[in-house]
Write a structure and sequence with these properties.
Number of helices: 23
Helix content: over 70%
Shape: globular
Oligomer: single chain
Largest sheet: none
Structural class: mainly alpha
Radius of gyration: 24 Å
Strand content: under 5%
């Protein structure tokens, strides 16, 4: 009897514990639903000028309207759009994704077929690298309104990230036919780049820049993408001109500064490159800028700074990923980024762990396959790298980094002919290729 009572007591304790967890979860969810989100103050250069004041005025007006009428769907959509744009400008995606998602979910709770809310939810998921979820919601939105151009852009993005390359061209063509503008031309450019057509990609991105309003964040981001295409083809002179044009249109634009940092790096002016990248990093929150700094610090002999910055990137990416375990509205898959970050600190086991986590989510994506292949290469497991690099090459991309990595893998697995052919498709002296990779590629060329 005593044993039976202890058993029943154990079951009761377990039930109470589970109930406590459920109640706590429901309480946290209720707090999340009731929370009112506002703007986070900008700092430094981003807080200067009239743009920030205009953003604050619009946000105040929209929040006042929502407070007066909690059912004001139009104001909630506009506020979500403002938060999404603010995330792009500041890099504070964790907070603004959560803020935008709160208002989007408020609308969908009452109007589950709201096209605009579904589009924004898809966009937020794609921003968080929840590509399968974002793609599924984009399909749902497209069923509601098949005549909207923007939803086809989301279908392009989602299918690219999931590696469904056969279907993306159809969606891009549909988007351009519905509305030829900056967003559609830029996606055409991206697809041409994926399929190895840099000439066509540059042409389409030029059209995208010309279709935008000079100085707008979207336009300058597009100009930055155009300059990046020139970098990949080795034309750093044109890239330099475009980055300076962007800064003339939008002073203190962080990504244009980062671009000038890469131009300086190509010219082996490490101090100037560091200055540009540090300034960019001080303006916007973006770990990719810190990762570039890691490489330049190392080239400049600043090893301690490089190591500290690399560890900071890992810590921040881990925090962002872990936040998603507590709140589904802000989770950010960052395993591909973490794989490269761990390679920078020579933790090859962790690099492989995160590379495979990303691969298991989207095994058909060429960039993910390149990541897995490169991790295996760094581990000295060349035969394991080979099948992944073959998938990474399936769209015939001419990215010089991809081709250099692929050449090394084919060389190490005994296929010198393929290695030579791949190197013939890119310039081994293209400064877009980082110095360690360039040196490693150069070391095999005399044997080909």
């Amino acid at each position: 009897m005593k044993k039976k009572n202890i058993y029943l007591l154990s079951i009761l304790i377990f039930i109470l514990a589970v109930a406590g967890i459920v109640i706590k979860y429901q309480y946290n969810q209720k707090q999340q639903e009731d929370k009112v989100y506002g703007l986070v103050d900008r700092t430094g250069a981003l807080a200067e000028g009239t743009e920030w004041q205009g953003v604050k005025d619009r946000a105040k007006k929209l929040m006042t309207a929502i407070q007066k009428d909690p059912e004001d769907t139009a104001s909630k959509i506009k506020l979500a759009a403002l938060f999404i744009q603010e995330a792009r400008i500041t890099g504070n995606y964790m907070y603004y994704d959560m803020a935008a998602m709160k208002y989007v979910n408020d609308i969908l709770a009452v109007h589950p077929n709201s096209f605009n809310a579904l589009v924004f939810k898809s966009l937020i998921y794609l921003s968080q690298h929840h590509f399968a979820d974002g793609l599924a919601i984009a399909h749902q939105a497209q069923q509601i309104n098949p005549y909207n151009a923007y939803v086809y852009g989301l279908l392009v993005d989602g299918n690219v990230e999931m590696g469904h390359y056969d279907s993306v061209v159809t969606y891009a063509d549909k988007m351009v036919s519905v509305r030829p503008d900056l967003t559609s031309y830029s996606r055409v450019s991206y697809l041409r780049e994926i399929f190895g057509d840099y000439t066509g990609a540059i042409k389409a991105m030029k059209m995208a820049v010309e279709a935008g309003g000079q100085g707008d964040e979207y336009t300058e981001w597009t100009r930055y993408q155009l300059a990046s295409l020139y970098e990949k083809t080795g034309d750093f002179k044109t890239a330099d001109t475009l980055y300076n044009q962007s800064l003339g249109m939008r002073p203190d634009y962080a990504y244009a500064m980062a671009g000038l940092g890469r131009v300086s790096l190509a010219n082996k002016d490490y101090n100037k490159a560091i200055a540009y990248l540090e300034k960019a990093d001080s303006i916007v929150t973006d770990n990719s800028l810190k990762e570039e700094l890691v490489d330049v610090y190392r080239l400049a002999g600043q090893t301690k700074k490089a190591d500290a910055t690399a560890e900071a990137v890992i810590d921040d990416l881990q925090k962002s990923a872990q936040a998603g375990d507590k709140n589904a509205n802000i989770g950010h898959y960052a395993d591909r980024e973490l794989a490269y970050a761990y390679l920078k600190v020579n933790d090859k086991d962790k690099a492989l762990e995160h590379a495979m986590l990303e691969y298991n989510r989207r095994p058909d994506n060429i960039d993910v396959n390149e990541t897995v292949a490169w991790v295996y290469y760094n581990r000295g497991e060349y035969d394991k790298a080979l099948p992944y690099i073959k998938v990474a090459l399936k769209t015939h991309s001419k990215n010089p980094v991809l081709l250099s990595r692929a050449a090394l893998i084919f060389y190490k697995t005994g296929d010198k002919v393929q290695a030579k052919n791949l190197l013939a498709e890119t310039s081994a002296t293209n400064p877009y290729i980082d110095k360690p990779l360039m040196d490693e590629t150069a070391s095999i060329m005399h044997n080909l």
